[in-house]
Specification:
Layout lengths: L1 E3 L3 H16 L2 H5 L1 H16 L7 E3 L2 E5 L6 H12 L3 E5 L7 H10 L3 H4 L2 E4 L1 H10 L6 E6 L4 H11 L2 E6 L3 E6 H6 L2 H16 L9 E7 L4 H16 L8 H10 L2 H7 E3 L8 E5 L7 H6 L4 E7 L16 E4 L2 H7 L9 E4 L9 E2 L2 E2 L4
Parallel strand pairs: 3-4, 3-6, 4-5, 6-7, 8-9, 8-13, 9-12, 11-12, 13-14
Antiparallel strand pairs: 1-2, 10-11, 15-16
Helix pairs in contact: 1-3, 4-5
Length: about 375
């Protein structure tokens, strides 16, 4: 049985409907991530969305977002529905994150989407897949790497293709000397971008920045810049945070043995962003950085006397954010970075067709 994919004009009508709902939705106006989602829809409306309009067979897709799932999961679901697929959304046992829950509520207000979006609790979903009277083409899932084995088993059982977006650790290479050469307005944009990369999704997104390489010829500039960054973070629209007790709990859940072995703290409890100075970079610190969120960042200082040996472990990172790509080439001339996704500051969590090197239009 074939169905016709939505035509581009139908998609634009749906996008306009969603944009209108978002404009009149209080939660959407107050939430920075949902606001960014609305801006991305504006971009799609202006530039058009190219999708195939051929006759296809109906495909059922399973979507399993993480409990903190944000706007990227909602966007993938939306694009899949635009392509003519039926989306089966499995709600995490701890519920959806505020951003995604609000966006799903908005989607359900649109008749054309409501027909193709089926929502199940965890228990309802288990009953659905055990009946095995529905076949699923793909399973698209987000979450910690611990859950991947369970999802692989599920995909094998259902004979479905698994597309998995696991947690990643992303870093920033920040040239403090270059920053001080910029004019005031450019510096403001750079600070906004760095704070955004760290604090968006409460630093709990799969592309949130958790580590910074500070490059400078003067070590004293690092502490001065950290103070400036914290001042900016307190004024940021992303500055909402857990209680101090909750943040301390997150900090102490990290592997304290490795923290003591490889690092020293460089923060006051009242700081919005807590900085932990690492003396060594290896895959041993990956579990530590996995726990960092709510504004806890690891860092190292690179100067002209720093040996680049430890930077060969850049493979633990998925993305490297920089002030600008041209200057980065000079900073990393002796390091192989061919496998890294190098992007400009402010784009770690930016909505885009390419997510973790996957074109989400082809999912």
């Amino acid at each position: 049985m074939g169905v016709l994919r939505l035509k581009n004009k139908d998609i634009n009508i749906i996008i306009d409907n969603i944009r209108e709902i978002l404009k009149n939705n209080f939660n959407a106006r107050e939430n920075p991530e949902i606001f960014a989602f609305g801006n991305y829809l504006d971009y799609l409306s202006r530039n058009g969305l190219i999708l195939d309009s051929d006759m296809i067979q109906i495909k059922n897709y399973i979507f399993i977002p993480a409990s903190n799932g944000g706007s990227i999961a909602a966007l993938v679901i939306l694009l899949s529905i635009f392509s003519g697929n039926t989306a089966y959304l499995r709600i995490p046992r701890r519920g959806l994150g505020d951003e995604m829950q609000n966006l799903i509520d908005v989607f359900l207000e649109v008749k054309q989407i409501r027909k193709s979006l089926k929502i199940y609790s965890a228990n309802e979903f288990e009953h659905l897949i055990t009946k095995k009277n529905v076949t699923f083409k793909k399973i698209i899932a987000w979450g910690s790497n611990k859950t991947k084995k369970i999802l692989i088993s599920m995909s094998n059982s259902l004979k479905s293709e698994l597309i998995y977006f696991g947690s990643n650790i992303n870093a920033t290479l920040f040239d403090i000397d270059l920053y001080h050469e910029l004019n005031g307005s450019r510096q403001k944009i750079i600070l906004d971008s760095l704070v955004s990369d760290i604090l968006t999704f409460d630093q709990n997104g799969c592309t949130s920045t958790k580590f910074i390489f500070f490059k400078t010829r003067d070590y004293k500039k690092v502490n001065s810049f950290i103070k400036i960054l914290n001042q900016k973070a307190y004024k940021s629209r992303f500055q909402n945070t857990f209680s101090l007790q909750a943040k301390m709990s997150i900090f102490f859940q990290a592997d304290l043995v490795h923290l003591a072995e490889f690092s020293r703290v460089n923060f006051s409890l009242e700081d919005r962003i807590w900085f932990v100075n690492f003396q060594e970079l290896s895959k041993k610190i990956t579990p530590v950085l996995d726990f960092f969120k709510s504004g806890i960042v690891g860092y190292m200082v690179l100067d002209d006397n720093t040996k680049n040996d430890h930077l060969m472990n850049l493979s633990i990172f998925n993305k490297i954010s920089v002030i600008d790509k041209k200057s980065t080439k000079k900073s990393l001339t002796s390091i192989s970075v061919s496998d890294l996704n190098i992007i400009n500051l402010g784009q770690s969590n930016a909505l885009d067709y390419i997510w973790d090197n996957t074109d989400i239009r082809t999912i």
